[in-house]
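Field log, afternoon session.

UNIT: design team B
ACTIVITY: writing a sequence onto a fixed backbone
BACKBONE:
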């Protein structure tokens, strides 16, 4: 990791390697895996797997989906429509089971958490870029790196590429 001078009034920032960033991402993933949302999802998933009716319906849906693919491949439109209607009915029956509803809610909670984290990281990176270039975060306008800072950054990147 090397230091690059920051514009006047901005913070100095170290250059991070892709490996360092991915290591931190894995740490964050471990942290997220211990969240209430993920634990609830895991519990709901175990309940789903232990429920014989749910397993039976899922197997039947998969079987019908294969039938639908074959019917479509063979050009049997009427039969395809019949099989698709059966799939919709099976899916409706599956969706009416409370544990399936719990599982889907848990999935949504985990997905929402991941989306929130993604948005937070993206916004923080954007703000940091604006701040480090002497820009205005409120207007969303980045500034410009002074020529000396650009030269230092380019030199640091060349050194990283030479070493890496």
């Amino acid at each position: 990791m090397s230091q690059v001078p920051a514009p006047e009034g901005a913070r100095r920032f170290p250059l991070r390697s892709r490996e360092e960033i991915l290591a931190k991402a894995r740490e964050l993933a471990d942290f997220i895996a211990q969240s209430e949302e993920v634990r609830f999802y895991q519990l709901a998933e175990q309940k789903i797997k232990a429920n014989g009716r749910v397993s039976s319906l899922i197997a039947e849906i998969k079987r019908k989906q294969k039938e639908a693919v074959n019917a479509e491949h063979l050009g049997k439109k009427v039969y395809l429509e019949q099989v698709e209607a059966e799939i919709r009915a099976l899916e409706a029956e599956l969706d009416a089971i409370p544990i399936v509803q719990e599982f889907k809610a848990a999935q949504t909670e985990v997905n929402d958490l991941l989306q929130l984290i993604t948005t937070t990281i993206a916004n923080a990176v954007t703000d940091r870029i604006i701040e480090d270039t002497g820009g205005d975060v409120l207007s969303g306008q980045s500034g410009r790196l002074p020529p000396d800072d650009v030269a230092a950054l380019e030199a640091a990147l060349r050194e990283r590429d030479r070493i890496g």
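LOG NOTE: Helices lie at 18-33, 36-50, 52-74, 77-95, 98-132, 147-163.
NEXT ACTIVITY: expression trials, pending approval
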